[in-house]
Amino acid sequence: LEENYGDATNESRKQEMGGKDPSPPELLKRIEQMEAELLQKEQRLLKIDFLCENISDLTDRIRAVVENGKQDMLLFARRTNELQKKINDKTQEIRALFAELSMKQALAIKLQQEIRDKEQFVMTTSLMISQGLPPPKEAEKERWKILRNEKMQKAAAEARAKHPAEEEQGAAPSHAPTIPKEEERLPVLRPHMAPFRRSEPSLSPRHFKKPPAKPSEI
């Protein structure tokens, strides 16, 4: 191949190629066709650029919405924390109220038990008095306690009635101890002042005969 085609003087090295050159009208037609294809490609490229711009605008809007969403989420988190704090405070208040209610219930149960004990004590005392027996010492103490409280309440009411002007002006009451008068003093407890009926002597001993005395052996 080098010997055949390397020599420039060898005319047999050239090779005829088939075909023919297009005529000028055909070339013009081919150029117009290529220009039409180029125009179509440019229009398609413009459409793609327009879509890219729209996508960029949409992306910017989405980014702005996301940023606003972050701010909204921050505000929502703050609001949630505030509400959670309020819920915790209310929970503490409810627990305190439940504790207070439990204390009140315990106090109510205790007072009910005291009422039942007092009723039982009154029934027992009434039964003993109806049978002519002296009442227990607790009844006497309760009686004098009630009398003392009534005396104190009566004295306080009389003091308020004597000084109405001082109470209207908001004068502070005197806390100095006062000595009760002779007629206001409580009576001293004495055995003969017990409020019960003396029992009559029983008639049952007359039905029993005294046993005879046995002689003592020396």
From TrEMBL:
Keyword Phosphoprotein included in the entry's annotation: no
Domain of life: Eukaryota
Entry keyword annotation includes Coiled coil: yes
Keywords: Coiled coil
Cellular component GO terms held in the UniProt record: cytoskeleton
Biased composition (Basic and acidic residues): 10-19, 151-166
PANTHER family in the record: CILIA AND FLAGELLA-ASSOCIATED PROTEIN 58-RELATED, COILED-COIL DOMAIN-CONTAINING PROTEIN 146
Protein name (database record): CC146 protein
Organism (species): Tichodroma muraria
Organism placement in taxonomy: Eukaryota, Metazoa, Chordata, Craniata, Vertebrata
